[in-house]
Amino acid sequence: MNEYLIPANTKNGTLILGLFKPFDLVLLGTGILISLVLLMSFPMNATWQVVVVVSPGLLCAFLVVPVPHYHNILTIIVEAYNFFTNRRRYIWKGWCVKDVKDVK
Q: How far apart are CA 76 and CA 84, in angstroms?
């Protein structure tokens, strides 16, 4: 009878609305605010102007969209950057390092 019930995702309790970190909301708010300021200050005469003006808000919304197995798209980009820029030659120092003869 020693069965424990552990929630599958306990991290959601620390997130705002179960989805966002405070930085995510600041990023999203900043992108939307920039888009709103640009919408009020530039005339919208052509489609390309609308796309340019709305793009900061859309880009920030894309970055904070939740994805499975990661927190959001921004997390995937940061982890991929860290993987490709950090050292990839790993030095083995495991529990059986003394048993291997070719370790220098």
A: 12
Q: What per-residue string of b and e applies to 5-31 under the rule 16 or more CB within 10 Å gives b?
A: eeeeeeeeeeeeeeebbeebeebbeeb
HSE toward the beta carbon, residue 70, CA cutoff 13 A: 14
Residue 17 identity (one-letter amino acid): L
pLDDT above 80 (res 7): no
φ/ψ of 16, rounded to 5, equals -75, 125
Helices (H), the chain: 22-41, 47-63, 73-85
Neighbours of 86 (CB within 10 A): 7
Q: How confident is the model at residue 95 (pLDDT cuts 50, 70, 90)?
A: low
27 pLDDT more than 90: yes
**Reported pTM:** 0.68
